[in-house]
Amino acid sequence: MNIIFLGAPGxxxxxxxxxxSEKFAIPTIxxxxxxxxxxxxxxxxxxxxxxxxxxGDLVPDDVVIxxxxxxxxxxxCKNGFILDGFPRTxxxxxxxxAMGIRIDKVIDIEVPxxxxxxxxxxRRVCRNCGNSYHIEYKKPASEGICDACGGDLVQRxxxxxxxxxxxxxxxxxxxxxxxxxxxxxxxxxxxxxxxRVEDTTALTLKLLEE
Length: 210
Ligand code: ADP
Ligand code: ZN
Prior knowledge:
Elements: E1 2-7, H1 13-24, E2 28-30, H2 31-40, H3 44-55, H4 61-72, E3 81-84, H5 90-98, E4 105-110, H6 113-121, E5 123-126, E6 132-134, E7 153-154, H7 161-175, H8 177-184, E8 188-192, H9 197-209
Parallel strand pairs: 1-3, 1-4, 2-3, 4-8
Antiparallel strand pairs: 5-6, 5-7
Helix pairs in contact: 1-9, 2-3, 4-5, 6-7
């Protein structure tokens, strides 16, 4: 199955993607994680992306479309994949269509704007592997340490309050129109984001198993 997770920053796309990934044994492709890894390794792409990410803006379409095209051509995507954080604009969705990629379900996780700020301010990510946690809603087994790899948990620079507002406004302007785009293709399924991760997961799995 080929799945897209849609939703505001901090709506829980990444968390749901990881869970579904494991359950269906298909890879999650997170453009955010790929770009952050490039930033850390100071590749040409990372250097190009830096100023956009830091300002809370989207990285240019041609850069992310290139990343996705390369990644989807890899062997492990043959039996399905999950896209987390792509597409984020109409041109990106059109590029997927132009590549002849068939999408089965687009799961839109809805979380009100008021909740987003609170979620992002409590988010912590592993400096080493990029896994994501929350100080209230998704605590690691031991505080400040990644369950998966033992790395330090830190706050992402773009989770700072000023940047969060910009990211939310970019989301409404550029990404939200994708709901209508996929609705028209009868691919859109909506999940109301719940307080507890496992409750959101139950709703997600129900939609995917239908
Ligand atoms: P979140 O977890 O908050 O949804 P991501 O980790 O997916 O955010 O992305 C972080 C940043 O990386 C975005 O704010 C944007 O600058 C860049 N980015 C990620 N995916 C895309 C995309 N598909 N198009 C443009 N920029 C992207
Ligand atoms: Zn880790």
